[in-house]
């Protein structure tokens, strides 16, 4: 990074740094102005944050985040529960014939979440996720940049591609591998970047 770098070209530096430092993802759909600046000054932001000790990852599908390389072997509660919720949602939509790559088009409301919980009650209850808990997890997903509130429900944001990519990798594994072992390994990277909550 050049020592003569002018911060005048980075008017949203403070906002972007605060957003990424909080563990949130920046999404082009939700924050178009911030995204436009990040895209325009991508090399400068990557270099600046790197000099500060942070790794900025920018995905061309429309999201960015601070990536952490120090993988934690223990999957945080929030990260695990979000992964499970997104997985059952993708399964429900696949069963309904919806194209998974268009998940940003889906409007997810409380009534539909109730139907999903009824369909997947056993697996969700095993993780301690009640019907009300689904809504709470979506509020958490919104705070982390995975969803946005819209029309009495939520809409998934491009950052959910991080989970979908892992689900597709899991699906490609041979059937004789244990799902739990595979899930723990595939989600380790996600857990290092997603703020976790260990309290009930």
Descriptive overview:
It is a single chain. The chain is mainly α. It has 2 domains: 11-67; 77-193. The protein has 9 helices and 6 strands, in the order αβααββαβαααββαα. A hairpin with a 2-residue loop joins strand 5 (147-150) and strand 6. The longest helix has 19 residues, at 77-95.
Fraction of residues in helix = 40-55%
In angstroms, what separates the terminal alpha carbons?
A: 43 Å
Q: Please tell me the overall pLDDT.
A: 85
- Give the amount of beta strand, in percent: 5-15%
Supply database-style keywords.
single chain; 200 residues; mainly alpha; DUF4194 domain-containing protein; MksE
In brief, what are we looking at here?
InterPro entries: MksE. The protein is mainly α and 200 residues long. It is 51% helix and 12% strand.
List the helices and strands and how they pair.
Layout: H1 13-21, E1 26-27, H2 32-40, H3 42-51, E2 55-59, E3 63-67, H4 77-95, E4 107-109, H5 110-119, H6 121-126, H7 131-143, E5 147-150, E6 153-156, H8 161-171, H9 179-193
Antiparallel strand pairs: 1-3, 2-3, 4-6, 5-6
